[in-house]
Structures are given as C-alpha cells and as structure tokens.
Amino acid sequence: MNNVIQLSEIFGWMSLINIGLLSIASLALVWMKDRISAIHGRLFGVEPAALKVLYINYLAHYKVLIFMFNVVPYIVLKVLT
C-alpha cells in the first residue's frame, strides 16, 4: 500500500509540474507571439502563418500527453488508495 501512495505522490507532482510548464508555454506564446514567431521563423525557415498552426498543434499534443501519462494515472491511483 505504501508503494501506491508514493506513486500517487509522484504522479501528482509530475502533473503539477507539467501543467505549470504548459501554462508558461501558453502564456509565453500569447504575450510574446511576435518575438517568438520571428525567432522560430528565422531558425527553421517557417512562415509566421504556419507557425501559428504549429504552436497550436504543439500545445494540443502536449496537453493530451499530460492528461494521458500524468493526470489519468494520478486519478486512478487516488481511487485505489
């Protein structure tokens, strides 16, 4: 039973950290959209219009992965304890 509690705590902290990183990335893209787009456009040779789609896809995939691999196991472990 102790291992389940420890795993639950680990998944809880992983969820919190990853949701925090997702929030920071989202806010950075909202507040500094032009500056970030200019840097990424020069680095990778991508047009600003295409970068907007890439940013949305990145955030959406990251969010789904956080829920699949962090939040859902945390909820399952909390139900078990």
Overall average pLDDT = 94
* Portion of residues within helices: over 70%
Amino- and carboxy-terminal Cα gap: 8 Å
Number of strands: 0
User: How many helices?
Assistant: 3
Q: If you compute it from the alpha carbons, what radius of gyration comes out, rounded to the nearest whole angstrom?
A: 17 Å
Largest sheet: none
- What portion of the residues fall into strands of 2 or more residues? under 5%
Model regions low in confidence, pLDDT < 50 over at least 5 residues: none
What structural category characterises the helix and strand content?
mainly alpha
Order of helices and strands: HHH
Number of domains: 1
The geometry reads as: elongated
Give a quick precis of the structure.
The protein is mainly α and 81 residues long. The protein is 93% helix and 0% strand. It starts with a helix and ends with a helix.
Topology:
Elements lengths: L1 H30 L1 H12 L3 H33 L1
Account of the protein in words:
The protein is an all-alpha fold and 81 residues long. The protein has one domain (2-80). 93% of the residues lie in helices and 0% in strands. The longest helix is centred in the last third of the chain and has 33 residues, at 48-80. It starts with a helix and ends with a helix. Keywords: Membrane, Transmembrane, Transmembrane helix. InterPro entries: DUF6868 (IPR049220). Pfam families: DUF6868. This is DUF6868 domain-containing protein.
